[in-house]
TrEMBL record:
Lineage start: Eukaryota, Metazoa, Cnidaria, Anthozoa, Hexacorallia
Database matches in PANTHER family: REVERSE TRANSCRIPTASE (PTHR21301), REVERSE TRANSCRIPTASE DOMAIN-CONTAINING PROTEIN (PTHR21301:SF10)
Superkingdom of this protein's organism: Eukaryota
Protein name: Reverse transcriptase domain-containing protein
Originating organism: Pocillopora meandrina
Length: 235
């Protein structure tokens, strides 16, 4: 209330990332405000403290305690909604053991499993840096987060190994600038053709994730060369 008194009339919108302050406003010259605080303190001191009542019955409270102490199950919120999911702990662990599932399903061999299972100990913390875009009128940096030797490096390389051949079979695939130049040199362009260049702002972040994943999975199922193929839902 002292803060409201001090900043009364200041209609400035608060900063969305405001850093909280530990500053405690001092006593204010408003007699009414300070007297109100004193009256509140007196009223609070006169309140009889009683033992809070539980909003659960004895059996419900006992059941909650038993669930909390049960190490054989896992309680987590569902992906969507407010539902609570109770799973056997063994099944919950197996749910995240992707490498073991791929190996047990004969989708990867022993060597691939061993390679995927080897991660640096301790793993390297991802490093942030930028590449300067010198082709821009005012040079800016392209943000990069390097996950080399990080906990997800090998599984990311594995997915890249699966999808690279798929990407190369797409009609729109261009490997790099040299590939584009070679393509243009071989392309027959008539005299009345107008060449247009364009740039998409934030291309990857504007791709809807669900639709992007669906399209990638469909392309993998159509063009994969793995035997046996890795089920697309693992991607």
């Amino acid at each position: 209330m002292r803060l409201r008194y001090i900043f009364h009339g200041n209609d400035k919108e608060p900063h969305p990332f405001h850093v909280k302050s530990n500053w405690i406003p001092p006593v204010q010259p408003s007699i009414a405000l300070e007297r109100y605080f004193e009256n509140i303190k007196l009223s609070l001191a006169e309140i009889e403290i009683t033992k809070p009542k539980h909003n659960l019955s004895y059996n419900e409270h006992k059941a909650v305690k038993e669930l909390q102490n049960n190490t054989a199950i896992n309680l987590k919120r569902a992906d969507k909604g407010t539902t609570t999911v109770i799973l056997n702990k063994r099944d919950k662990i197996q749910e995240a053991q992707l490498i073991a599932q791929l190996h047990n399903g004969k989708h990867i061999d022993d060597m691939t499993k061993k390679w995927l299972s080897q991660t640096p100990n301790p793993p390297r913390i991802p490093i942030f840096y930028t590449f300067t875009k010198i082709h821009k009128p005012l040079p800016v940096g392209r943000p990069i987060t390097s996950g080399c030797e990080g906990p997800t490096e090998r599984i990311s390389s594995f997915v890249d190994h699966l999808l690279q051949p798929i990407a190369q079979k797409q009609k729109s695939y261009l490997k790099d600038t040299t590939d584009f130049i070679n393509f243009i040199e071989k392309t027959q362009v008539s005299n009345d053709t107008i060449l247009v260049s364009m740039d998409v702002t934030s291309l990857y972040t504007n791709i809807p994730q669900e639709e992007g994943i669906t399209i990638v999975c469909q392309a993998y199922e159509k063009y994969h060369n793995n035997s046996p193929p890795i089920p697309s839902h693992y991607l």
